[in-house]
Write a structure and sequence with these properties.
200 residues, mainly alpha, three-stranded antiparallel beta sheet, 52% helix, globular
């Protein structure tokens, strides 16, 4: 695909600058490529990663990423005063410099922010931590893999893509729908049974 894009750019330039009398790339169809499967952290993988964390801060941080669906830039800027534990939400500065609410998870996250004002982490620190976890567990994880894991888990739990879009702060529902492609027939059957009182 990259080769095709480069070749198209060269042909277009040659044609527009009169080095070619016709643009041959117009007759070449765009190659079909398989959709890349992006890393997604499942609940089982999250539990394994938590077991390999070296400190409570790291456990709290990746828990917040997975249970809230936050972006990395949103999570590293969270402060204790941003949480509303009575409704289990946290107010964050999201994409486009807009404030929004996100889900907060109790347990590890609440315990951390009871004693600390922030995670005291920057982007580089998070990336170093996730690389170490990848090396120790064999689970390929980056910050966005937790966000995708949040979306997939919520969809498999029965929430609509529109609800997941709102909870995770996606501007376009197309991204959530892309993640929902991992939903198998067995997943759909289980959701159907739940919605119909376990009657098939």
């Amino acid at each position: 695909m990259k080769f095709y894009s480069c070749l198209r750019a060269v042909c277009n330039w040659l044609y527009l600058n009169d080095y070619l009398t016709d643009n041959p790339i117009r007759k070449v169809p765009k190659p079909r490529t398989k959709e890349k499967i992006l890393a997604t952290i499942s609940k089982v993988q999250l539990d394994m990663l938590l077991e390999h964390c070296h400190c409570e801060r790291d456990k709290a941080f990746i828990s917040l990423l997975w249970y809230s669906g936050m972006r990395l830039s949103e999570a590293i800027n969270v402060r204790a005063s941003d949480f509303n534990w009575s409704e289990n939400t946290v107010t964050i500065l999201g994409k486009g410099n807009k404030y929004r609410k996100a889900l907060a998870c109790n347990g590890l996250v609440r315990q951390w922010f009871t004693e600390h004002d922030s995670f005291e982490l920057n982007k580089g620190g998070v990336q170093t931590m996730l690389k170490r976890l990848t090396a120790e567990t064999g689970i390929h994880c980056n910050a966005h893999a937790f966000r995708r894991g949040f979306a997939v888990h919520q969809i498999k739990s029965g929430l609509s893509t529109r609800v997941v879009q709102s909870l995770g702060g996606w501007e376009q529902i197309s991204m959530v729908e892309r993640y929902s492609k991992s939903l198998t027939f067995d997943d759909a059957l289980q959701l159907y049974k739940q919605a119909n009182g376990h009657e098939v």
